[in-house]
Amino acid sequence: MSNYFGTGNVGEPTIIPQQRSQLGNPMGDSRAAQKPHRDRSSPPGTRTAPAVPLWATLFIAMSAGVILDAAFPDRGWWFLAPVGIVLMLWSLLGRGPWTGLLVGLVAGFSFWGVHIYWLTVYLGPLPWLGLAGLQAIFFGVSLSLVAVVLRWGPRLWPTRFGRLGAVPVVVAGLWTAREAFTAVWPYGGFAWGRVALSQSESPFNSLAAWVGLSGLSFILVWLSAFVVQLWREAQIGRVARWAVAAGLVGILLAFPAWPVIQTGTTRLAAVQGGSDAALFARYPPGQILADHVAATEPLIGEKVDFVVWPENSTDLDPIRFPQAAESVDRISRSMGAPLVTSTITERDGRYYNTSLLWDEGRGVIDRYDKVHPVPFGEYVPDRAFWRSLAPDLVDLIGRDYAKGTGGNVISIDDILAGIAISFEIVDDQLVREMIDGKAQIILAQTNTADFGRTDESVQQLAIARLRAIETGRTVVNISTVGASAIIMPDGRTIDSVPTWEAGAMVRTVPLSDTVTPAVTFGRGIEWLVSALGLAGLALCLVRAGSRRRPAVK
Description:
Elements: H1 17-24, H2 29-34, H3 54-70, H4 80-92, H5 97-115, H6 120-123, H7 125-156, H8 160-182, H9 208-232, H10 238-253, E1 262-272, H11 287-296, E2 306-308, H12 322-335, E3 339-347, E4 350-359, E5 363-369, H13 383-389, H14 391-394, E6 409-412, E7 415-421, H15 428-436, E8 441-446, H16 456-471, E9 474-479, E10 484-487, E11 493-497, E12 503-512, H17 517-521, H18 524-548
Helix pairs in contact: 3-4, 3-5, 4-9, 5-7, 7-8, 7-18, 8-9, 8-18, 9-10, 9-16, 11-12
């Protein structure tokens, strides 16, 4: 018998590797070149992506980012989220960490560039480029690590169970870890754009009450990675692949909603003043307050337990300005109920973005100072450094708001209400602190005028909807210009006000002290799936290193 190196038995022809290839392929190299390439690091029967030029892969990655954004409001085509993720993962097949980084940067910037384009409305392109670029870097690093797992995971777990069971879990864990990291860093993080936030009106939204937003992101990415791994299994028929994928989707869709037990009701009035309260709006002091007074006056005679206005609805602090105090006092007296409003307060030389509970004749009876002011929006961290880079832009933020230190639950007579000011509704920790504080309802006060008529306001409303489901609470999302809505604990909208119009919502809504599994386990689910992803990555890196080390003779 001849061996590979051409040394055969006497009388037998010697076959060198090239000759053996030609004998095994009578049509020559042309047909072999048409065969799909298989990564040598993957076990037999495992396919990688067809060999395509890098430029084509980058185009697919760019398209995937745009497709993923379309799953979010305002389009809200939630079913496109797995499609975008599948295309991103498919683009990584057969790629190493460096090309994976490039693919991730392109996919990340195409997604973030479209998703937060609303930043340019008043602030121009520089903040948009900075934030989208930073998020794209995080995205690129994350997908670079995912490329390592997709390349070496099938070799590390060579059985079909390992390839279909372990690899998707590790990929989804790494994706979730990246979302968790960027939600808290730098400067308190930016928790926008998580995959779960695309599912506010999808059949998957009830899962938020079971596993929280991080858990929902993990499930969606896991499902997408599982589909990619099914495609790689060359020995599984096409019909079988579709059947398995459809079965998994069916199981997730059949998952029951968490039951919410109603402990009482409250009747409230939520008022949208229709005020252009944007950063560069030109209006006399007190105009926003006057707009909200005018929008509330038609409600006089309605029997309500309290009235709620949005963030910055009282542009003159009623604690310091008597004319503002008289206006909010009159509204509270006329409605026969306390008023939850919002203003900028000043104490001991420090400014706060504050929600006030005001009652006629008594003034302020409770308050909440915003705990998580927005960096580069409400304050400038490391001001001297950033001003040296963009002085004109930094100087637009003339004063820095201090961070509040109190709890985010206020007592409105016998009702406990959790308060979220603006972007705080996306902060997982603050939402859980509300429930720990026994909040029976959530009031999400916001001012979205700075983003014009873009899709920022509906993206924020989608977050509020998922918070209602996740916590089992009614959420009142009230804005100066919209999107304002009252959302039930099951995610249904029972009332809303058209954007950029003055209007009000008067509704009787349920109160609840339900504690969902998502709240019970808190960040534990996020830590668990992230740890699985990082542990799997570490094993893949060890495997890759051992394969590349030369053998010791």
